[in-house]
Amino acid sequence: MTEAVSTPDPFEQIEQDKARAYNQGLTPLHPPQKSLIRLNTGIFAAILTVAATAVEFAIRNELPLAAGSIIGPVVAFALFLFAFLPNRIYRRWGYDMGDEQLRVLRGFMWRTDTIVPFNRIQHIDVAQGPFQRIFGLSTLIVHTAGTHNSIVVLPGLSTPDAEAMRDTIKGHIRQDMI
Amino acid sequence: MTDTPLTILETEASDTDIDTSFRRLHPLSIILKSVAAVGQNLIFMGVLYFSVFDRNIAYTALAAIVLLAIILGVTALVWSRFTYHIGPKEIRIKSGLINRNNRSIPFDRIQDVSLEQKLISRILGLATVKLETGASAGEDGKLDALALADAEALRDALRDYKSGIVANAVDAAEGAAPAVESEERPSLFTMDNRRIFIAGLFNFSFVLLAILAAIAQNLDFLLPDDFFNPWYWAEQLSEQDMVNGLSFSAQIAGAVGALVSLIAVGLGSGIIRTFIREYGFRLDRVDTGQPGFRRRRGLFTLTDMVMPIQRVQAAILRTGPVRQRFGWYHLKFQSLASDGSGESDHSAAPCAQLTEVAPILAETDVANVTADLEFHQVDPAFWWRDAFILAVILGAVSIGTGVFVDPGFYALILLAIPIIAVLFLNWRHHQYALTPTQLFVRAGWWRRKLTMLPIRKIQTVDIGQSPLDHPLDLATITVGIAGGSVIAPLKIDDIPMATAMALRAKLI
Description:
Chain A is 46% helix and 22% strand. In chain A, the strands form 2 sheets. A 3-stranded antiparallel β-sheet of chain A has the order 1-2-3. Chain A has a 3-stranded antiparallel β-sheet with strand order 4-5-6. By secondary structure, chain B is an alpha+beta fold. The N terminus of chain B is likely disordered.
């Protein structure tokens, strides 16, 4: 469970090794996850652009602004996000299935590193959204009894990986821990 | 009562024949709930009296009788459709007039059982049973209300079930019977009136002030304007003194008077609130079933709660700078279920000396602080980083407003002194210690909190780094425990990253 399962492409292997350098040597997410992050960032950037255009057209007659003085910076920012963010977000994600515990590392600016012992997990979900289905990805969601961190989410796993992890964890769930 | 509930009773009777073990709540609970509903509708009747009925007492009385009949009828109907059944392993509750709801609560999942008796319930000899599973906010099973004897029988049934499990487990493991003692042991902790008074002194609150203000707003036609406003009295005082030509000192006297009245109201409401809640506080250990704590308290509303000891997740010791000087502490137990009245943890000793806390803690798996326990300080960046940011922002604001608005605003920078002092004191009081089995975390200077957490109760551990933490290579550990506050989880702030990683390795 320490290696991602299906990465025959040598280029992807290099990508994976690069990702490990950033996430303390943990297992990176399934590579298509990067495309999914890029898609989500793209949608966000598009919304930003549309909003900026709407604002600019709305106030064009009210304020003496040069054309593109709102669209310009916003589009630049959106492009910056789109070009810069997905890779960074992707390579900061990492997970590690230990013998007794699941470790999840995430975050580019705000980093969080969570450890959940298997025997503290109450139940598990494997979830898949429409975009994730296109890329063959799944999200593993584990629920603990803790009030803080009652839900630990690990997105961007290949669906077979997620299901295998679920089955591994399932064997460790114990009754009446609290 | 009208005919309606009787007919319903008959149709329901055929229903219950199928499963005769299902029982209803005590019939008097109809009256109990009706009284509550009537109370809620009194204002409505008052509005009707003044508006629609144009102060015609006869119409209003007629409407009141009709309303009373409706309330009684509906309450009786709801009562007749509410049945419960205590099975060998679960409680089932059927309820609902139109949308029938059939709930099953396994005994295994029940965190604690509490019996509550409001004033009217006490007169009628009833008690409300609340079952907490910790699944969501509020109680998951509420039987409102049973005869007191039935309620106690239900609690005992639960206790016996749990003791059965414990006995089996022990038998399987060691073949030894669990030690069963009688309940005649002396209490673990009680509070007499003097102690409750002391607790009240530290329970400073403005809740009463808010209530009085609300009353004053609604009943202001009965009282002189601003009767509850301390400034009103202050002004009265200063006006009288101004006649004597002591205007300046009178103003000071007025301000002092206002402050004193405010403090008096705060203290008074704190004491009253504490008396209402904690009157007759008594904490016992019960051994007749699963070992647990039994807590009884309340002046008007009596509550009687039993919490199994194994459900205790962590112990929390709260105090304040003044309280600590006099040696008073508030011991709480964190569990998945929440206490009534909005407290997130179970109060076990609201006002106790450390010598009284120790024996209570000794009953649990939570170890007390020992004298040789070494607490570690968190990184000084905890205070100086915030102090630096604050100084920069306050400096900018004070210069900005000072230059452009009024030079007097330069004084805003002085605000930084008390705030930074508090930040520094908070840092001094933020410490942690680790033993092989337990984590201790101290936090807060004004609201001091010591959390004692057995390591095996830890659910998750987070190491978090904010953008400001990266240059200093600091990290914050957040520990996930069952129960407690969502907003303020247990944290160890600003310790070096390497220390955090090492600490986490020991925690899990």
